[in-house]
Write a structure and sequence with these properties.
Layout (H helix, E strand, L loop, with lengths): L2 E12 L2 E12 L3 E5 L6 H8 L7 E6 L2 E2 L5 H7 L1 E4 L11 H8 L6 H14 L1 H5 L10 H13 L5 E5 L7 H18 L2 E5 L3 H7 L2 E6 L2 E7 H5 L2 H8 L3
Length: 239
């Protein structure tokens, strides 16, 4: 397996609070990997450390063999990493089309941007129907689709997704993960997905890591994690 992302003993803090206490994980090129755990386990901080929003205090993050140390979030996006944050964070006063264009801010290939806009609108037909609507007028599910579409507009090699199912109806969650799996298969786009919904995450991802208090507690192939009694009872809360 060719590795695209490697974290080695990564630590990160918010003031005196140590959110990550030596996280090590690997994401293979073309894989979908789930990052699971309870609230406060360090899942979101792991993604923010990768995207440069919370620089690690120690440890190493390698993307395609190159260190991300000292790089700004903007520089990291240009390397090929896009972050879809928890809570969507779309631009509510911009239209769907304008939100998507914001996702391509680091690109200058006009033809490619047009192609990717069409690709996103085909992936999410609901967005196509609402191209001219303001982001703030969309439903929660549509806003999540828009947030993912905006991330895809950066044409990343690695897509970081933070709680894509949060607050959504099961049918919308299923649609979103079906779309993510299609993008992964067709574009070989690597994904690292933070999820509270362990069943959904492990059903759709190839591999999983479970964080507990800022450290990796368990890891393995998704199918094995789904049947691991310790993981199910102690970490995932799935019965």
């Amino acid at each position: 397996m060719s590795l695209l992302l490697e974290l080695s003993a990564v630590e990160a803090s918010y003031g005196v609070i140590r959110a990550l206490q030596g996280v090590s994980l690997e994401v293979g090129d073309g894989d979908m990997v789930a990052l699971l755990g309870a609230n406060g386990a360090g899942k979101s901080t792991t993604l923010r450390s990768i995207s440069g929003m919370v620089p690690p205090t120690s440890g190493q993050i390698l993307f395609d063999g190159k260190s991300l140390a000292g790089l700004t979030p903007n520089e990291i996006v240009k390397l090929g990493i896009a972050h879809v944050p928890e809570g969507r964070k779309i631009f509510k006063d911009l239209t769907v089309s304008e939100n998507l264009r914001m996702g391509a801010y680091s690109r200058s290939d006009k033809t490619g941007i047009i192609e990717d806009t069409d690709m996103v609108l085909n992936l999410f037909p609901r967005l196509k129907e609402r191209e001219g609507q303001l982001g703030g007028s969309l439903s929660g599910g549509e806003q999540q689709m828009l947030a993912i579409g905006r991330g895809l507009m950066a044409r990343p090699r690695l897509l970081l997704l933070d709680e894509p199912s949060l607050g959504l109806a099961p049918i919308i969650i299923a649609d979103i993960f079906t779309t993510l799996k299609a993008v992964n298969a067709e574009r070989r786009m690597t994904m690292l997905i933070v999820e509270q919904n362990a069943n959904v995450a492990l059903k759709n991802c190839h591999f999983g890591y479970v964080l507990r208090v800022g450290k990796v507690a368990v890891s393995g192939e998704s199918e094995k994690l789904r049947t691991n009694r310790e993981v199910v009872e102690s970490y995932l809360g799935v019965h």
